[in-house]
């Protein structure tokens, strides 16, 4: 059995729902009321994506960064 490691991005919307995305696959998103629920749900979606889509081995996950942008206040 081969083990795969996939990056996921977790965000929270205005209704406090956790949105989870796996950038390895196009359209690979899920959500949950808790982070644990969202992660369990994205695990299932990733498994489906692995069956339906070919994994692109040409891109290698490096990491996520946060960038700070200063915006002038509107007048």
TrEMBL record:
Q: Enumerate the transmembrane spans.
A: none
Q: Where is the signal peptide?
A: none
Where the record annotates domain HicB-like antitoxin of toxin-antitoxin system, the positions are 6-69
Q: What is this protein called?
A: Uncharacterized protein family UPF0150
């Amino acid at each position: 059995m081969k083990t795969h490691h996939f990056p996921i991005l977790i965000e929270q919307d205005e209704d406090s729902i956790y949105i989870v995305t796996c950038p390895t696959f196009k359209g690979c998103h899920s959500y949950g009321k808790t982070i644990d629920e969202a992660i369990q749900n994205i695990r299932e979606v990733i498994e489906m994506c692995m069956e339906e889509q070919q994994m692109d081995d040409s891109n290698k996950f490096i990491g996520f960064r946060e960038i700070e942008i200063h915006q002038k206040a509107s007048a």
